[in-house]
Amino acid sequence: MAAKVGVLALQGAFQEHQKMLADCGVESRPIRKPEELKGISSLIIPGGESTTIGKLLQDFGLFDVILQMGREGLPIFGTCAGLIMLAGEIAGSRQPRLGLMDITVERNAFGRQVDSFETDLEIPAIGQPSFRAVFIRAPYITGAGAGVEVLARHGDKIVLARQDNCLAAAFHPELTGDRRIHNYFLRM
Ligand code: GLN
User: Fold this and answer.
1) What are the tens digits of pLDDT across the range 89-103?
2) Which residue of the set 17, 80, 154, 182 is catalytic?
């Protein structure tokens, strides 16, 4: 059976992920209700507003189910606000988070004066050429436990990391047409 990837569709950039998955030749399904999680092979948590996504996950009864599936090994890819949802620790915030990754994140960490920017990242796990990354009010990872594999940095800041079945990007790989990070996730 072909893999069907769930894309959390409560808020944020889910359509862009669905389009990217279609370009990768993979079927996807928007997730708004717990029953829609049944039978998915992996899950993407898109960018948006992490406080809103966290609250909606609880309001829609998705929070505990996704947490359980993540603990059982479902591959989950969080981008930007989705990365924040995966973090165990969010600096200065007690907002809801799944906490599946042993990472500490700082929200809006690049500062107001650089709301959004693009840069080329070296990501050995996907090879050459470098990856054009779009950052939008992005977080970054300030600390990572021993079980976390750092996949990319921007300067000294960790912006792409993996821990077992979870992958987290501070930027938006669904926006640039480069499929390599989605394909990396699909192989997880
Ligand atoms: N700044 C947002 C947050 O903290 C994340 C931004 C994004 O997902 N593009 O939730």
Assistant:
1) 999 999 999 999 999
2) 80
For the segment 165-184, the average pLDDT, to the nearest whole number, is 98
Q: Which two tokens stand for residue 102?
A: 């042993």
Active-site residue flag, 89: no
Identify the CATH assignment for 4-186 out of 3.30.460.80, 3.90.550.10, 2.60.120.200, 3.40.50.880.
3.40.50.880
172, 134 Cβ separation under 8 angstroms: yes
pTM: 0.96
Determine if ligand 1 sits within 6 Å of the CB of residue 49.
yes
- Is 172 marked active-site? yes
Query: What is the rounded CA–CA span in Å between residue 51 and residue 40?
Result: 25
| Residue 113 pLDDT level (bands cut at 50, 70, 90) | low
Question: Token pair of 35, please?
Answer: 């029953």
Is there an atom of ligand 1 within 6 Å of 24 CB?
Answer: no
